[in-house]
Specification:
Length: 106
């Protein structure tokens, strides 16, 4: 993963509504959520949610498929895990730390 891609992904999450929406899609798992259900969970107007979903789609953090008349949004778990792996690749300079921030002496 290149630095420019990492910055694009992190920038797409650097907004409270988008972060909450992404986390809700992660919780939903591979089943995903429709925009209506997601808007209701987050308490966001449909137009606002649509704007934020578009931003995350363009960044490649989420995907969207059609199921009949419904759109289903899903977190891209491969992209998410690739980002996490990039961010933690050199954790604690290669020394075991259990990946728990409070006990990590990095």
């Amino acid at each position: 993963m290149e630095d420019e891609e990492v910055v694009r992904l992190l920038a797409a999450l650097a907004q409270p509504h988008r972060l909450r929406a992404f986390r809700a899609l992660v919780v939903a798992g591979p089943e995903g959520l429709t925009p209506g259900v997601l808007a209701e969970q987050l308490g966001l107007p449909a137009a606002t949610l649509s704007f934020h979903l578009k931003e995350m789609l363009h960044a490649g953090l989420i995907g969207c498929t059609r199921d009949g008349r419904h759109l289903i949004y899903r977190a891209d778990f491969v992209r998410m895990n690739t980002l996490l792996a990039f961010l933690s690749a050199n954790c604690c300079a290669g020394q075991p730390c259990g990946l728990t921030a409070p006990s990590c002496n990095c």
